[in-house]
Amino acid sequence: MYTSGVERPSSYQRRSKMKSFITNTLSDFFFEYETPRQVLVRNKRVGVVCRLIQLGVLAYIIGWVFIYEKGYQSSDTAVGSVLTKMKGVGYTNVTGEERIWDVADFVFPVQGDSSFVVMTNYIMTQGQKIDKCSEPPNSKNRCSSDADCEGRSERTGDGHMTGKCLVNTTKMCEVLAWCPVEDDGNIPDPALLMSAENFTLFIKNTINFPAYGVTRCNLVEGIDNQYIRSCLYDPKTSPLCPIFRLGDLVQLSGFNFAAIAKVGGAIGIIIDWTCNLDHDQSDCKPIYSFHGLYGNPDETDTARASVGYNFRYAKHYMEDKQEKRTLLKVFGIRFDIIVRSVATKFDIIPTLTAIGSGVGIFGVATVVCDLILLYLLPKREFYNNMKFKVTETMEKEPLDEFKSEKEVSKKHSEEVLVHHEAPLSET
After folding, report:
1. Strand residue runs (E) in 107-153
2. pLDDT tens for residues 66-89?
3. Does the annotation place 194 within a ligand binding site?
């Protein structure tokens, strides 16, 4: 019998075995390396297939991912602003009335926004006041009796019907409206402000790439006040000049100025900033392009509705203590300036990501070659036996309380090795 104060030998052995087990486990985890088994196959057809696939993957990684898509770079889009300024003076002479039109008259709005309209044609109705008068001759509200003009307001009408038919005069319904009502049945042809073809547009565009701390302006290096006074944009000789002649803009967008000036239309001006900041910042320059959006009457689709662009605005004034107005139906060219920007620069993270994905794609060659070896070639069973090692089921050795399966497996492997080596030594 052992006294209660003395530790039993069996408990000491257990603790020693546990300590040895933990030490061996940690040693195996930190200081052993396992690698998959590889089989070298000498087969010309399979080898050629493998190398062709690997060559294709390599071409994809280098050619597409790195050279074309620039997978080694990160990208950022810009924030910026666009300021515009029109210059020009127009002259009209309608029924002997001469008028001069300047920027305050033919540009809407006048604040220099990135989207604006330049008036090229108009229909003016002067001296309108609120009164009762007849609908214009081109109105659909014709009548033969007062019953046809019952009190209502048509959505497309000129005012509120009074219920009276002017049978003896115009045979149109009487309305309470701004009289005389506008008659827009005949659009002036040619356009009254054909001189707008020589108007000029100045564009100032500033952008900032916040991720890279880079700010650029379309007034790039080499463009100073002296250059701006004399330059005019030309896609070949002056591609960086920020001053554009309206006639040239319309022509570059694929429209005919006389046709679009008559009924109006829309043109998009694209300022493209595609910058590779791995190069010097001075190489980051804008590229201008022009696109006709709508409004060309010469298009082959003659069934199109609502061709052109127009709107109305009025100038109110007081005369003899009565409110009056001058109404203009404006036909003009709407310009929308759109800035597209992207900057790219080398970044280690997308570079490693692109390399890692490329290395992973190399595994396609292994998968394809394995399928050929195991399922298509005549000696597929031989290759199957070489690739996969199949072991017979053996009776499991009872595990010691602190002996790992790895140690038992190692013991069995040593026994099998001795079993196979014994006959060789005998011979």
Report:
1. 107-108, 115-134
2. 888 888 989 999 998 999 999 999
3. no
